[in-house]
Specification:
Layout: E1 4-9, E2 13-21, E3 33-40, H1 43-53, E4 58-61, E5 63-65, H2 68-79, E6 88-90, E7 95-102, E8 105-111, H3 127-130, E9 131-137, H4 143-147, H5 149-159, E10 162-166, H6 179-182, E11 188-189, H7 193-200, H8 205-212, E12 219-223, E13 229-233, E14 238-241, H9 255-267, H10 273-287, H11 300-311
Length: 317
């Protein structure tokens, strides 16, 4: 019996969010921000926190430093109901992202820190005996994880663990992932359309889909923003599902991660992929009803209420 339905393996950092900034920074000059928030960051953490809020049993595998930011990360995950026993404390400081908001634009600066260090040898092997499903995310921000991805997938295959992968964007834009050997061991591949095109080097979505389809494990879910999502089976079957649109968007930070949380929470419960897709579309939309990536995900009952009242739909969790 698996102790965890989902093991989230990925990056951890704090977000230092600066708002109401006088003007853009200039070398040699001091500027002021009127508001600051220090909070749990990282796409994988948003995924894990929201999957836990949706009722999944979730543990997190990631690396932090032995510092105040590492303590904040651990306590924040635990407050969201995510098990932190597989968190690794290393000598490298915890990563941090400074987010400078200017109206609708923002500039981010990230120190990768511990997130760039963790590899397979750092991970407690017990997690592979206790998890039913592994979700991997943000590979290009984690050189150690990217280096060891084949070994991790081989262990998952040996243990009969299903795997989802959302590579996220590559900040270096080199896209050094051999998808022809990686994707066959991934049960559900979960890029957005821009990431898929960049990974394959194709200028249009259809060409990008055609490029990876022969290498898919079971299926690929392409997130298409306000257009919805496209589910593509290895066999070629497709379902395009329009988005559930929120007319009063608070913000869309973490909407893709919230989509992943809904899809995978349904997947580990054995729902058909079409139901997983609908659940993902719903949780992606729910994300936009409150500030931040986890603001709307206070409990499954609250999410049910939002789905019913805001989008006229019952969530299948």
């Amino acid at each position: 019996m698996n102790q965890y339905q989902i093991a989230a393996i990925g990056e951890l950092n704090v977000d230092i969010i600066l708002n109401r900034i006088d003007s853009q920074p200039e070398i040699g000059k001091e500027k002021f921000a009127k508001d600051m928030t220090v909070t749990l960051g990282s796409s994988t953490a948003i995924f894990a926190a929201n999957a836990a809020a949706l009722g999944s049993s979730v543990c997190f595998v990631g690396m932090v430093g032995r510092d105040a930011f590492g303590t904040l990360v651990r306590k924040s995950l635990e407050a969201k109901g995510v098990d932190t026993r597989f968190l690794i404390e290393g000598e490298t400081p915890t990563g941090a992202t400074i987010c400078m908001n200017y109206g609708e634009d923002r500039a981010n600066l990230t120190y990768q820190g511990a997130m760039d260090v963790m590899g397979l040898d750092d991970i407690n092997p017990a997690v592979f005996d206790e998890a039913k499903h592994i979700h991997l995310s943000s590979l290009f921000m984690q050189s150690g994880l990217l280096r060891d991805i084949h070994r991790i997938l081989e262990i998952a295959e040996e243990k009969g663990i299903t795997v989802s992968l959302d590579t996220q964007w590559d900040p270096a834009e080199t896209w050094k992932l051999d998808y022809k050997t990686v994707l066959p061991k991934v049960t559900v591949f979960m890029p957005n359309e821009k990431e898929l095109q960049a990974l394959t080097g194709k200028n249009d979505l259809e060409s990008a889909i055609a490029e990876v389809q022969p290498y898919l494990g079971r299926a690929m879910l392409v997130k298409c923003g306000s257009k919805g999502s496209l589910l593509v089976w290895k066999t070629g079957k497709r379902v395009m599902l329009p988005a559930f649109l929120n007319r009063d968007v608070v913000d869309a930070i973490g909407a893709g991660d919230s989509f992943n949380a809904g899809f995978i929470s349904a997947f580990v419960k054995g729902l058909p992929l079409e139901d997983c897709q609908e659940t993902g579309n719903l949780t992606g939309a729910v994300n936009t009803t409150a500030a931040g990536g986890t603001g709307a995900f206070t409990s499954l009952e609250d999410v049910r209420t939002i789905c019913r009242e805001k989008f006229g739909k019952e969530i299948k969790l």
